[in-house]
Amino acid sequence: MGKGQWGRALLAQIGVCVGYGSAFLAIHALNVAQSHWHLYVGLQLICLLLLPYRYWAALLIGEAIPNAFLAFKCLADFGPAWVAIRCIPEMLVSMPIVWLCRSQLNVFPTRHLVNVKALLTCVLMVSIALSTYAYVLMFSSIHVPAALYAARPQVMGVYLTGNFGGLLTLVPWALIARLDYRKGRVTAQFKRLWTNKLLVDAMGIAVPVIAGLTLLAAKLHDAPTQLIELGMIVPAAWLTAKHGWRAAALAGTAVLICDSLLHPLGMPTPAALETIAGLCVAVSGLYVLGAKVSAQKIRDEHDRAAAEEVHDMARQHLMTTERRMRRAAERLEFVAGSMHVANAQTLEHMRRIVPNIESHAFYKQAVKAHEQVYLLAESLHPAAWRDRGLPAALNETLARALDEAGLQYQCEIDGRGFMFLEAAVHTAIYRTACEGIVYVTSDITCSSVKLVVRAGETSGRRWVVVRVEGYLDANDVAKGIYFGQNRRELAAKLGANLSSVKEMRAHARTFDGMLHVRSDARRVVVSALLHSQSLGVQKHKNSEPLRLWVS
Fold this sequence. Notes:
It is elongated, with a radius of gyration of 39 Å. It has a five-stranded mixed beta sheet with strand order 2-3-4-6-5. α7 (116-139) packs antiparallel against α8 (152-180), α8 (152-180) runs antiparallel to α13 (245-262) and α14 (270-353) packs antiparallel against α15. A hairpin with a 2-residue loop joins β3 (446-458) and β4 (461-472). The longest helix is centred in the middle third of the chain and has 84 residues, at 270-353. The protein has 22 helices and seven strands. It starts with a helix and ends with a strand. The protein has helices spanning 2-31, 39-50, 56-72, 75-78, 80-86, 90-103, 116-139, 152-180, 186-194, 197-219, 226-231, 233-243, 245-262, 270-353, 360-380, 383-388, 390-404, 423-440, 477-482, 484-488, 490-494, 501-509; strands at residues 113-115, 408-415, 446-458, 461-472, 514-519, 523-531, 547-549. It is 68% helix and 10% strand. With 551 residues, it is of the alpha/beta class. Keywords: Membrane, Transmembrane, Transmembrane helix. It comes from Dyella mobilis.
């Protein structure tokens, strides 16, 4: 077992060494002519950041061998001193810095968390260290004609911007790939990528604008193009401010690639070097901005999810209360029936014992008690609702209560998906209708009530509008006074217990809705919009999204 583990570990080390060496040679062959855009530096930092420390020796060997091969090819041109220094792998210079950032600056606080400030600090420190190494290497070739290295500060700037640009181009993409990768979910992630709004905005607006500015700068040979090149940051900044971290990686990479295509191969001019340096600084600022935007979006999403959980708990509480009221109503109906049978039997026994008893008063009291218990059960939960559904309660129970109060009533139920709404929304519909009816009928001039319930679906989420209209007629004031007692009892009959419009609005907000009240000389209208339970935040324990942190 031990030998097998050692064998697998050795194969892994060899694989890392050979794989990195091959990648090093390939990227050098592709990027050898771009003195102001060093992509191979990005490859070095990616491997040092993402691979465990136990593979660093294999990485160092994988770079040392092809690096020495490339250095010895230049022996005749630059001399042995240059070759001796050049045989020192650049990765060896970067390793202490990356170790410091990983262990002390905490680049990765958790598996799915990136400290962007520490990351950019690491990128800048590595760029400075490698630029210093290259500058020292240049002094070792003093026998080379001085004309090639006359502008020594400019050469240092070329090294610094080239290293910094190469790091900014590759490192963020590697981090995104590593942190977003989920085993077994690659296909689903690619499908989600094609429907992502970021890709639409990038390919439809930002990238075409950047490409257009690049073509414009390329066409203007005799005019100064620095302003046009720096203008490429504007669409990149817009995309970053809208979408965050990934947008900064996409737009920043596009800016750096397009700008590198504008400059000829070899040593850039001082003006071009200033432009490249300005773009590198701007792109690094985009990463900080994108990190802050992404972090804010995540906080907003967490707040929204927390609010949704509170709403869900409130709905569950309302449903629990409603179920208890339903059971209490069923029990009260049973008690009312038992009381009626018991009172009838008691009255029959009393007639046998005392034949001449005046049983009318006793019978009237028994019937009244039975009716009161029944009305109490109806106010808790209508029998029509339990037996025939919510439409029966809206058409029959409310109509009977309003008829007893001397009010005309009309109910309209329209729209699709009404019966597919969740039970909590059905409860909210009935209670909102009852509260609205009690509110509009509190005006003594109200002569008729109209209830309109309309259901629908938008973007996969069901909704319902409940509108209660109370029509006012000053000529029916006498009728309102005549039925004044019944109107005062209407709230108790319908089980309405919200005392103000403020409480009614709070009840509507529990269902992600809103409530409006408006009135004029002819009518009073209470309108409420209610939503079914939202889909909420999709929580996948094994697919936690990339989070960013700027300290």
